[in-house]
Amino acid sequence: MSMDEHGESSPHDAKAIGEKQAPRVLIGRCHEIVLKGGNRWRFVDQLKHNLRGVFADIGIGRVRAEGPRIIAELPADASDDLVRERAALLFGLQNFTISRPAPLEMEALKREAIAAARAHPARSFRVATRRAEKRFPLNSMEIDREVGGAVAAALGLKVDLENPDLTITIEILPHGAYLAAGKHPGAGGLPVGVTGRGTVLLSGGIDSPVAAYRMMRRGMKLDFVHFHSHPLVSTASREKACDLAAHLTRYQMRATLALVPFADAQREIVARARRPLRVVLYRRMMLRIASALARRAGSSALVTGESLGQVASQTLENMTVIEQAAALPILRPLIGMDKNEIIAEARKLGTFETSILPDQDCCSLFVPDHPETRARLVAVAEEEAAFDVDAIVASAVARAELVRYEFPPRAQRVG
Predict the structure, then answer these.
(1) What pLDDT score does 369 carry?
(2) For 197-413, which CATH superfamily applies?
(3) Which among 220, 233, 228, 203 has a CA at the least distance from the CA of 346?
(4) What is the CATH T-level fold of the domain 11-185, as seen in this structure?
(5) Domain spans in the chain, listed from the N-terminal domain onward
(6) Is the pLDDT confidence value at 8 over 60?
(7) What is the pLDDT confidence band of residue 366, given thresholds at 50, 70 and 90?
(8) Predicted structure pTM score
């Protein structure tokens, strides 16, 4: 411990020692889960499972549910920064704190709150108390006033109830109290895994990663399928899809990406079908192949990044014709969003910069100058009668290359 000129320990050293010695817990406050009825336990169990998964490499202690809270004991060697980064990936949490225990005594609460505020570079603060233990003699507002008054008197900080630099949170529970300096936003939504399994058509563009994120936030566990035209084009789209799949896997800990060679199917379509219908035929073939891969993975639905009217294949008429080739329901979480809204979400998600890297998307290969925007199913069926659809699908499925992802990021090619 370093000493200042008066022989006292530095507050920075005290903070470092405190972080090493004081036990910490992650307290996550549930989002939609609290609205569930008799089956809430399913959501809570999945959230606890996911919490252990996201911290699998560092390990955590006991995890328990207490009312609308999930409380997990944190290892001493896990930094606060790492805990914040990982906890922010957990769908199902409205917010969370990294808290330290304190006795159920007012003087102890004041002492711990002063220590927490002293370690934070704040000029203003507020105290926010939740009193689940109703036998504690003071109510939440009274605790806020007394603890806040002690902090202000000891450190000279300004009380700001509307926009403080620091919020000191206090949880009064039956077995003890917990204090934290700062409350952090959670990912919201439902825990991944509670609403089934889906397969995303991951193009490498801006839209499909956002669609995947939205479905994971609704509790769906996802796998990914990417169609590429290598060796007719470079491997850029494959590489982007791998990067995007790895990024998205952080929210669900495990996923599989199927890299599907699509060049032979495109050659067949180009050789035998009329030019205006190529894009519609490409998309119908992709849905057949994706359906086969999805069923093999146990998925119940396909997910796409389609937005109504955005490109030629996404007119209402074309989507209606295209989706009839799918063997599974198609979910389109972006259907009513415009491009600016999708871009804003992609930036927030952290996929935008990868998605805009230059590549040659397979759907842009051999595209006619004037693609059909109002395809008719009868006309499309006539074109598809010219080639062996089942053989094309079987060949693409057999040649699909699988990449399995785990979080923390790790990929291993398995086929």
Answers:
(1) 76
(2) HUPs (3.40.50.620)
(3) 203
(4) VC0802-like (3.30.2130)
(5) 11-185, 197-413
(6) no
(7) low
(8) 0.89
